[in-house]
Design a protein that fits this description.
Elements (H helix, E strand, L loop, with lengths): L3 H14 L3 E5 L5 E4 L1 H7 L3 H4 L4 H4 L7 H12 L3 E3 L14 H6 L5 E8 L7 E8 L1 H21 L10 H18 L3 E8 L2 H8 L1 H18 L6 E4 L4 E7 L3 H17 L15 E8 L7 H17 L5 E4 L3
The chain binds guanosine-5'-triphosphate (GTP).
């Protein structure tokens, strides 16, 4: 191994075999090394860029984080890692001509490292990793996580919140009401004589009935803080934050009437001809002391009373 240029050639061959982009700059920011990886992704040979200022080859880097990283390395001897989330693709690099035509850059992780050179001013090495695959996989995972999360919180039949979602939400809203000194109301909503409906029309039509009632409830409870959930088989629950007992009663009555408006036929003899609901209300007043479990059991007791009093009605239970 003799001259510097022989050594540079060997180095360039080694760098050419690497599956990473490598650029070496001299102290004047001129390109000294440019490997095959770079040539393939820019369409520019090592010869065509050798000796050029990095910013003459990539004018768009001017004023960018990559330019600052090179200056830091050459002048201050500081290495830099360009965060992938902030600088997705600083260099115009393309996996193929088709990707270049679409303007679809390779996703990059860029590292700039100062290099001490004997007998010369400091150089720097820019390494560019293609992280497109990893970024794509990450995006896919994130999307799948979102889908899974929405499935774990949604009821499979009706699409509204499920019991697990309800259990978490009631605790959260209870804490919020206690902290904020505001009322919190809970409605328990149960379809009347649903066993008879199922027995008469069959389970699949029973499912359709549940879907229609759930959709009507969801359409009525539209404030972002409200939550309507499927609590059990044919029972629904609605959490109404910042809602006092009078407002809760109005909402419960509106739901009862809306269900009748759906005009879903029920077999004759069972509470008239149409599907109806009974509702139980419990309200935790602004200065109340009841916990979430107390609120739920009071709403349950109210629902039981509405059923006992003849169904298709609303009942409320006072909270201790
Ligand atoms: N189709 C269908 N039926 C269900 C589902 N979950 C529960 N049910 C039915 O809902 C019915 C509930 O019946 P009960 O608890 O006896 O109450 P009910 O007949 O509605 O009477 P009251 O509540 O007293 O008015 C049962 O027949 C269950 O099989 C479901 O996902 N789909």
């Amino acid at each position: 191994m003799g001259t510097d240029s022989e050594r540079l050639m060997l180095l360039q061959q080694v760098l050419g075999g690497l599956n990473v982009g490598a650029i070496v700059l001299d102290a004047e920011r001129r390109i000294v090394l440019w490997n095959h990886w770079m040539a393939r992704r820019t369409g520019r040979s090592a010869d065509s860029v050798a000796g050029s200022d990095l910013l003459a080859v990539f004018p768009e880097l001017r004023g960018q984080r990559a330019e600052a990283a090179v200056t830091q390395a050459l002048h201050n001897n500081f290495p830099s890692l360009l965060s992938q989330s902030l600088n997705k693709a600083p260099f115009p690099l393309y996996a193929s001509a088709a990707a270049a035509a679409r303007g679809e850059r390779v996703q990059q992780a860029v590292e700039v490292t100062p290099i001490a050179v004997t007998g010369a001013a400091r150089h720097c090495l820019i390494q560019i990793n293609d992280v497109s695959l990893a970024v794509g996989r990450e995006r896919l995972l994130r999307e799948q996580t979102m889908v899974l999360r929405s499935q774990t919180f949604a009821d499979g039949l009706t699409g509204i919140a499920n019991r697990r979602h309800f259990d978490m939400a009631i605790e959260k809203e209870h804490r919020r009401a206690r902290r904020g000194g505001v009322p919190l109301s809970l409605l328990m909503i149960d379809i009347d004589n649903f066993k008879a409906y199922n027995d008469h029309y069959g389970h699949p039509q029973g499912d359709q009935c549940l879907i229609r009632v759930a959709a009507a409830l969801a359409a009525m409870l539209k404030r972002p803080c409200d939550l309507v959930a499927r609590y059990g088989g044919e029972e629904f629950a609605a959490i109404l934050p910042d809602t006092d007992s009078e407002q809760a009663w109005q909402m419960a009555e509106a739901i009862r009437l809306r269900t009748i408006e759906l005009a879903i036929p029920h077999l004759p003899g069972a509470d008239g001809q149409l599907v109806t609901v009974s509702l139980g209300i419990a309200t935790r007043h602004a200065d109340g002391s009841a916990d979430a479990a107390g609120l739920i059991s009071a709403a349950d007791r109210a629902l039981y009373q509405a059923k006992r009093d003849g169904r298709n009605r609303v009942a409320a239970q006072a909270l201790a």
